[in-house]
Automatic annotation (TrEMBL):
Segments passing through the bilayer: none
PANTHER family per UniProt: HTH-TYPE TRANSCRIPTIONAL REGULATOR TRMBL2
Taxonomy, superkingdom: Archaea
One Pfam family matching this protein: TrmB
Coiled-coil regions listed: none
Sequence ranges assigned to domain Transcription regulator TrmB N-terminal in this UniProt record: 17-70
Record protein name field: Transcription regulator TrmB N-terminal domain-containing protein
Length: 262
């Protein structure tokens, strides 16, 4: 059971805010009500929020499935019930919004056209997860062979799974080969992605950089960016150069030949 507000660790409030869509006042009221049911007039003092805000905060918590109001007192819904239900609601809302985004994407791609003479100026510095993913969507559909060495990128693999699956697609035959460090522990979702993509993965010592090289001479070299404030801190460099890509492919094949299958 969570204690009173003044004793509640800050991370409880922060977790409710970041992952379950409660604001500061809502998180405080929910935590206070977990201690005991109380009347509307008691909430302001117990949760340390301004009295004029109490009514709106309680109504919002009711709509989000965290509080029941009997008309006499307010009662917090058990976290074992409220939190999974809230996750399901957020997931449904995201899927509905994402469906609308997909329709907007189709409309925009049809109406917005890039100049036929446009080419990337190299080298390209990519900052942030979204820029890297956008480039993957651009270069992967053109390739039939992709060689990857993965190190620090594995720390953010949960973010990249769906992005890589979407960028690669399923309509084209493509050989994907990945080298990963020997001490990496793969999860069920990783094996599912490997199977879905038909990828080959081998274990090796000494993987230092995150790299990608394709048979169309696209090269991405990435490292985490400690100065970034984004949730997935990453900076990468993109170049398209035949000699450089060929050298990387040759080095990759030598390491691949001695690596261990998973």
């Amino acid at each position: 059971m969570v204690g009173c507000l003044v004793e509640a660790p800050l991370d409880e409030i922060e977790l409710l805010r970041r992952f379950f869509g409660l604001n500061q006042y809502e998180a405080r009221v929910y935590i206070a009500l977990l201690k005991r049911p109380m009347g509307l007039g008691e909430v302001s003092e117990a949760a340390k929020i301004p009295k004029p805000r109490v009514y709106d905060v309680v109504r919002s918590l009711e709509s989000k499935g965290f509080v029941r109001n009997s008309g006499v007192e307010l009662q917090a819904i058990n976290p074992e019930v409220a939190l999974p239900a809230r996750r399901a609601a957020l997931r449904a809302a995201f899927e509905e919004e994402d469906s609308k985004r997909h329709q907007a994407q189709i409309a925009l791609i049809d109406s917005l056209k890039i100049s036929s003479g446009y080419t990337l100026r190299e080298p390209v510095i990519l900052r942030g997860f979204e820029q890297v993913v956008a480039l993957l969507y651009q270069v992967l559909p053109q390739s039939t062979q992709v060689m990857l060495t993965l190190n620090k990128a594995l720390e953010a693999k949960a973010y990249f799974r769906e992005a890589v699956k979407g960028a690669v697609g399923t309509g084209q035959q493509r050989r994907i080969m990945a080298l990963i460090p020997m001490d990496v522990k793969l999860e069920r979702e990783d094996f599912e992605l490997i199977e879905t993509l038909g990828a080959q993965v081998r274990l090796t010592a000494g993987v230092l950089l995150d790299t990608m090289v394709t048979d169309t001479d696209d090269v991405i070299i990435g490292l985490p960016d400690p100065s970034s404030t984004q949730s997935v801190p990453v900076v990468a460099v993109y170049v398209k150069d035949h000699a450089f890509a060929s050298s990387l492919r040759d080095t990759f094949k030598k390491v691949w030949s001695t690596a261990s299958a998973i």
